[in-house]
Specification:
Layout: H1 31-61, H2 79-85, H3 88-121, H4 126-137, H5 140-150, H6 157-164, H7 180-205, H8 209-217, H9 222-233, H10 235-250, H11 254-259, H12 271-281, H13 285-317
Helix pairs in contact: 1-13, 2-13, 3-7, 3-10, 4-7, 7-10, 8-9, 10-13, 12-13
Length: 318
Amino acid sequence: MSTLTSPSTPVDEGAPRPGSRPRRRRTPLTTAKLTPWFFVLPALVLFGSLGLWPIIRTFYLSLTNTVGTRGDGDFIGFGNFVRLMGDPYFHEAFAHTILWIVFNLTVPVGLALFLALMLNRAIQSKVIKTLFFIPLALSAPAIAAIWTFIYQPDTGLIDITLAGVGLEGLQQEWLGSEWVLLSLMIAGGWRETAFFMVIFLAGLTGIPHELVEAAKIDGANTFQVFRHVTLPSLRPATMIVMSSAFIGALLTTDLVLAMTRGGPFGSSDVLGYRMYVETFFNGNFGYGAAMAVVITLIAALFVVPYLLRMNRMQEEEN
């Protein structure tokens, strides 16, 4: 009696066994995979050396009593931050900065949106549009020189205009009185308005014309079109403008340095200028770094949640 035997099937040693997890094949690093990193590497080196390392260094210096550039001082922990809490100059600069932030988030932003709407709809002349862009082409010292001339007592543009209309009693020492902070805000707002207007104009050009026409066909008036079509479509531009307005007011230094140097008697002192004075005038690098850390934390505390909320609203609408 013969027995039938089935031919033996070859066993694939690489095949996964029943009940075992399949093995992942390791793909060797090839030139095609490494090539993109070679292109990114210069940017990473620049960011690390010019961006990331200074941030880390500033945080470290804020924990020391470093004075001057002869070397790092002793580690004192949060001593500089405790000193900030009791520094009257810091408190005054902080209060002035809050006022500047409120001004920057309202007046320049609102004026920039209004001008962008006018330039986009009613004014098509390229020459007139260019005139509104002039502040963007000027440096901070140039803007400071222009507005210092405007604010000159008796011979400045404002006082001459007031004298010409018989309002000599309203003439002021615009940069030497209680009006100094507002005067600086207006000068800075003139520059910021032009920048914000460009961003809003870019946003307006991206709104599909069909949306506006559809809203008008449905019976929407000008205000309703602005509220339900224009403003929602401008949300990405508004995110950029509001963040820039907040950070710009928080870091204001150049105009104060060029026009008043924080005077008179600290009435125009702000956080950015106070940090600059403590670091480069007084040589207190550790204390100045602590101010820089506080400014960074304030910016992150307000700007990051705002951006996250706006992005969430944008995703919900889409």
